[in-house]
Write a structure and sequence with these properties.
By secondary structure, the protein is mainly alpha-helical. It folds into three domains: 9-69 and 293-364 and 387-404, no CATH class; 71-173; 187-280, no CATH class. Helices cover 69% and strands 3% of the residues. The chain has helices at residues 13-34, 48-68, 71-76, 78-95, 115-131, 141-160, 164-169, 173-179, 185-203, 205-222, 229-253, 256-265, 272-280, 284-295, 307-310, 322-355, 359-383, 401-419, and strands spanning 97-99, 102-108, 111-113. The chain has a three-stranded antiparallel beta sheet, with helices on one face. The longest helix is centred in the C-terminal third of the chain and has 34 residues, at 322-355. Its main location: membrane. It is a multi-pass membrane protein. It holds the Pfam family FTSW_RODA_SPOVE. GO terms for molecular function: lipid-linked peptidoglycan transporter activity.
């Protein structure tokens, strides 16, 4: 049998178009949020919108480079890419530049590069490589631990840089592993801890413990799979430990500003004067962001016509709070359009991931979708006050070269892998 070596690559143009639509719409909002005068010089490279235009222009060259590289390169050298990425994170403790309290950047001339953004792609490649190995069985404890170690290493390194937002993103890999057969009890444990933590902070550890007791009794009598006595006792002891432990963690481990953000989110503070003080200090960005979004109404105030955006009421609005610009100037219609574009991109990537013939490509595709989803969900939820304030950018939208290029690399490696699936026999 003669093997056909003539490869015809067919890139998924739906993914590519959705990507650049988000990038283009994002730049328009960066322009609106960062311009400083009535007359706008679109090529003023001293302003964020001008710099972002340069980043976007260079992105085209990066896309061409990523698609020109042989698809097998990304799988073959995934471990090397991961190691280099981890070394870049370690190097920050020696050569890193501190910006806003986080040592997450390298200063190169007049530019800064944030390696934690690129580490997400490296981790996605490493997880895909390990999980797809013929000797790996994600149902065994040994392989589960080794996979968790791959994910935890960059998460810890990023956390030590005081970048909590980027650390949380590594939780996205849970969805990837769950798709590949991670036992369901991990999901049950995760949801249970989250619920108990919220109940403990909101109503007290005793209420959380009683709730766990009621649930165990109900499960024992109503479920077909009866719990044994020692299992019920173990679950109750674990619930008590979580309920009282989260209170200790909240009061003794978290920093004051992190406590305040959770307190505001769960409405723990009842003193009206303290609430007003919060809105004037650490919650100022959130408060102004909510006002900007609500003022947009159905169709918005119009491009570059948002009073709170042009008045610079939301500090650094072109970065983490860029969605408030969308809400004010484009209204509910524009905000819904952005959400729809992100959902379409996520669904498209997941659809393509399921069509992959190699497990490596499928796992990596799920990693791409999961990372984008966590960023998208947390950022928009944060800006609207639905979840605690966490410093995390909106993919393809927020200002920043590192973020834009990192998501470009993340997505277009998958586009390349997808184009090569016809040869993955």
């Amino acid at each position: 049998m003669v093997r056909n070596t003539n490869r015809h690559f067919k890139f998924d143009w739906i993914t590519i178009i959705l990507f650049f639509l988000l990038v283009g719409f994002g730049w328009l909002n960066i322009l609106s949020a960062s311009h400083t005068g009535v007359t706008v010089d679109y090529f003023d490279f001293s302003q964020p919108f001008g710099k972002q235009l340069v980043f976007i222009f260079l992105t085209f060259g990066l896309v061409i480079l990523l698609l020109a590289v042989d698809a097998k390169f990304y799988e073959r050298f995934s471990s090397v890419i991961y190691i280099i990425s981890m070394l870049s994170l370690v190097g920050l403790f020696i050569f890193g530049k501190n910006v806003n309290g986080a040592t997450s950047w390298y200063g190169i001339g007049g530019m800064t590069i944030q390696p934690s953004e690129f580490a997400k792609t490296a981790t996605a490649l490493a997880v895909a490589k390990y999980v797809s190995d013929l000797n790996t069985n994600i149902n065994t404890l040994k392989d589960q631990i080794q996979t968790f170690i791959i994910i935890i290493i960059p998460a810890i390194l990023v956390l030590l840089q005081n970048d909590t937002g980027s650390t949380i993103v590594y939780g996205a890999f849970f969805f990837v592993l769950y798709r590949e057969g991670l036992p369901k009890y991990y999901l049950t444990i995760g949801i249970s801890i989250l619920i108990l933590s919220i109940l403990s902070l909101k109503f007290g550890a005793l209420v959380a413990t009683i709730t766990a007791l009621i649930f165990v009794i109900a499960f024992h009598f109503l479920s077909k799979n009866k719990l044994r006595i020692f299992q019920s006792v173990f679950i109750l002891i674990a619930a008590i430990a979580v309920s009282f432990g989260v209170k200790f963690f909240y009061q003794s481990i978290l920093q004051p500003h992190q406590q305040d953000r959770i307190s505001l989110w769960l409405r723990l503070e009842k003193d009206p004067e303290k609430l007003e003080q919060m809105k004037r200090t650490f919650a100022y960005n959130l408060n102004e962001s909510e006002k900007a979004i609500s003022s947009g109404g159905l169709t918005g105030r119009g491009f570059m016509e948002g009073t709170r955006t042009t008045g610079k009421f939301v500090p650094e609005q072109h970065t983490d709070y860029i969605f408030s610009t969308v809400g004010e100037e484009w209204g509910f219609v524009g905000s819904a359009l952005v959400v729809i574009l992100f959902v379409l991109l996520l669904l498209r990537i997941l659809h393509l991931a399921e069509l992959q013939k190699s497990q490596f490509s499928r796992v990596y595709g799920y990693g791409v979708a999961s990372i984008i989803f966590i960023h998208f969900f947390i950022n928009i939820g944060m800006v609207m006050g639905l979840i605690p304030t966490i410093g995390i950018p909106l993919p393809m939208f927020s200002y920043g070269g590192s973020g834009l290029w990192a998501f470009t690399i993340l997505i277009f490696i998958f586009v390349k892998l997808d184009s090569n699936k016809i040869n993955e026999w």
